[in-house]
Structure formats: structure tokens, C-alpha cells
Amino acid sequence: MIQIQTFTFNPFQENTYVLFDETRECVIIDPGCYEKQEKQELTDFIQSNQLHVKYLLNTHCHIDHVLGNAFVKHTYKVDLYIHQADEPVLRAVESYASSYGFAQYEPTLPDHFLEEGDRVKFGNSSLAVLFVPGHAPGHIAFYRAEEKFCIGGDVLFQGSIGRTDLPGGNFHTLIKSIQTKLFPLGDDVTVYPGHGDPTTIGVEKKYNPFLT
User: Does the domain made of 3-207 have the CATH classification 3.60.15.10?
Assistant: First the structure.
């Protein structure tokens, strides 16, 4: 059974997730840790729980979700996996990081690309990759059918959806992604978003003003 640990990092209040199972293997998704104390919080948790980091995953590559990529790669000697369509988004971060107040941002590039239908395997567990563009051109989500949860990045929020006014964003594409990729997962599936608290597909179908 997968356990999910959430950290909220950086001024964007971004959710970083560590997923691990009984084997103690884990994956880190969207490390937003930038300040020294944030990096320490992440490493303390991994060390205290005796976890072995197997992969670094990005749902998408906006700055708030990738600030800790280089730190995680170097600290745990792991590869970075993203969708290929988001590689230009990741490469662009270096050009604007300072203007957002992240002068010490350390760029890094992906090692592998994920596509819809791929599975990320760690320990006794696996996550299915869903392609859900709209907020970012190469946005993906990680779905665990057996335990009815989805690490959704900035696609669907409690009462809201991801913004679509950034380069590569498209409102209609995002709505289509939600309706055709997330809604069919089932009303009882919990979505762990890139910002804010978890929600369920059923609640958002019924109450989300962008989707009702």
C-alpha cells in the first residue's frame, strides 16, 4: 500500500509529494524545495523513514514545481522523468528564475520522457501515467487505480482548475483533459493537487464552478 507524504514549499505554496510503500522505495514528485530549510525538511523525512529514492518525477515544469529538481537529482543520484512536450518549459525556467526571486535556481535537464500508458514502478507499486495538457503542454498525472488516488499537479483543484494564461496553456484543452482523463477515473478517486488540499472527482464534478 502506498503512503503519501505532502510538503508545501516555496512562496507559491506548491505541494511536493513523496510516495512510498512497504519496501521503503519511493518516488519524489514535483520537488519545490528551494530554501535550505525546505531541502532539509525533505531529506530529514526520507532519512528518518529509511526511504530509498528511485525516481524523480515532474507532473509539469513550471518554476514552482522544479525548484528542487537539481537538489534531488544530485542528493539521491536519480534520474528525472517528464513528458517531452514540457522540456521547453523546463529549459525556460533558467531565463526567468531570477526575476521571480530565485537567483540561486540550479537548472537541470530530463533524463527520460514519460507518455500516457507508461507505468512508473517502485517497490511493489506502480503508477499509471495520464497525459492531461492544458495548464502546461506536457502536463501528466500519476494514477493509482488500486488505491483510488491521482497525483494531479495543476490540472484540477478544490473548487478551481489550473490557470491557462501561461505559455502553452489552453483553457479548452484543460477542460477536455479533466472531462476525458480525470472524470472517468471515478467519483471516489482522490486528487492530490499541486496547490491546496486534496479533493475528489465526485466533489469537483458536482461543485466546481468551472466544470458544472
Answer: yes
